[in-house]
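[step 3/7] inverse_fold.run input=structure_tokens len=188
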């Protein structure tokens, strides 16, 4: 998966929030992104980002399983809200691995065995790799997850972006109009 991690975390957070009112959305979204926090390091220092599932512990499910133990002990000491948030965060991480397994190798037994597992292979056609992914059927799944998240956000909250963003930009635009300056310059 490339685009759907954040939206999938949003959907997870919303579903969890229905069962557990008052639980914030951010642990689910953060968890759904968390394994990809290794991407900037690989982009800057290598090896190639395409190999990060193999080399990076952040993309090894057993690394997160080991991390879950101290995280849950810490959360338990902080109270039920922290425990719930931590469990939803970890569910987001698992969701990330399930979605990655749709199209990329995930080494579920790493570091003990580096055998990779994936459900489909968009790279079998020899074209520039982004094009292979963009034309593969799994892109329909990604688009569906993204659209479902947008639909849920707009339906439940009546807006797509946080309210403060819109208000801030509107105030900046009005300030720029009053002062006769350019909008871009006023918001910079
Ligand atoms: Zn990933």
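[step 3/7] decode complete -> sequence:
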């Amino acid at each position: 998966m490339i685009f759907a991690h954040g939206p999938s975390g949003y959907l997870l957070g919303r579903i969890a929030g229905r069962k557990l009112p008052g639980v914030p959305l951010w642990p689910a979204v953060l968890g759904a992104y968390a394994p990809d926090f290794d991407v900037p390091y690989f982009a800057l220092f290598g090896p190639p980002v395409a190999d990060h599932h193999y080399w990076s512990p952040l993309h090894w499910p057993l690394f997160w399983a080991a991390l879950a133990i101290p995280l849950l002990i810490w959360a338990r000491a902080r109270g039920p809200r922290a425990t719930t948030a931590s469990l939803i965060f970890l569910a987001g991480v698992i969701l990330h691995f399930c979605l990655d397994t749709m199209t990329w190798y995930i080494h579920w037994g790493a570091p003990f065995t580096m055998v990779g597992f994936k459900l489909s292979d968009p790279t079998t056609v020899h074209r520039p790799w982004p094009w292979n992914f963009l034309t593969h059927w799994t892109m329909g799944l990604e688009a569906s997850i993204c659209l479902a998240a947008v639909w849920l956000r707009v339906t439940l909250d009546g807006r797509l972006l946080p309210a403060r963003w819109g208000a801030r930009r509107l105030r900046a635009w009005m300030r720029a109009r009053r002062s006769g300056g350019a909008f871009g310059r006023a918001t910079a």
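[step 4/7] annotate
Residues 35-36, 59, 96, 100 surround zinc ion (CB under 6 Å).
The mean pLDDT is 86.
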